[in-house]
Amino acid sequence: MNLVILFLTFSALTIIGLLNDETRNATFSRTKEEWTADMAGLFIQGVVIPAVPFITVPFLYEFLPRFAGKLDINAFVQFMLSFVLVDYLYYWNHRLFHRRHYWFIHRMHHSSRHLDVFATSRNSMITSFLFVYVWSQIIGMYLLKDSTPFMLGLGFTFALDLWRHSGVKQPQVLHSALSWALIMPEQHVFHHSLVGRNRNYGANFCWWDKIHGTFSPNEVKNKELERISNRNVWTELFTPWKVNK
Question: pTM for the whole thing?
C-alpha cells in the first residue's frame, strides 16, 4: 500500500512541477553532480530503506522471538502513534541534525539550490539510516501483531515529505485549510534557505515548531536557496565527515 501511495504522489508532483515553467527550468538546470546526489538519494530512500525492515525483522523473529508480534493495538491508535508521535520524535531528530557537531550528517540535504520532488531524498548515505522513521518501521513490524495501520501512518508521512519538498506553491484556499496543522511546502522552502535554516523543523505538523518556538510563517523565493557546492559529491555521499566545513 505504501509503495502505491508513494508512487502516485511522486508521479503527480513530478507532473505538476514539470508543467510549471519556473520549476521545470530549475529542475533541468541541475549539474551532473546534483543529479547524481538526487538520484542516489531517491534510490536509497525509495528502494533500500523500504527493504530494511523486511530484511531485519525476520532476524529479530528468529533470534529474539519473545516479543515478536506480541502487541495487539487498536488500528486508530497505531496510526496516531506513527503519524503523530513519530512525527514529534522526528522534530527532535531533525533539530539535532542542525546542531553544529552533527551538521555534517544533514548538510548535503541542504545543498539544493531550489526544492522540487527530486531533491527530497538528497542525503549522505549514513543520513538515510539515522532517521527515526527507519527504526520506527522495524520496531512496528517486529512488535505489532498486525502493523498495517502503523505502516500506513508512515506511508502518509513519506507522501507528505515528497509534497513538502516539491516546491509547489499552494492555492490560497488550500493553504488556509491546511496551514493551521501542516508544515506547508512554502514553509519548508524557507527552512532550506540560508536565513530560515533554524526554523520549521517539523515534518507533518507545524505544532511542534509552534510549541518549541521555532516556527516561522515567512516565505522566500524557491531559488538560490543554497550556494552551489564545490565539494566532491562522492565524498559528501559516502564520507561526509571528511568534508571540510
Answer: 0.91
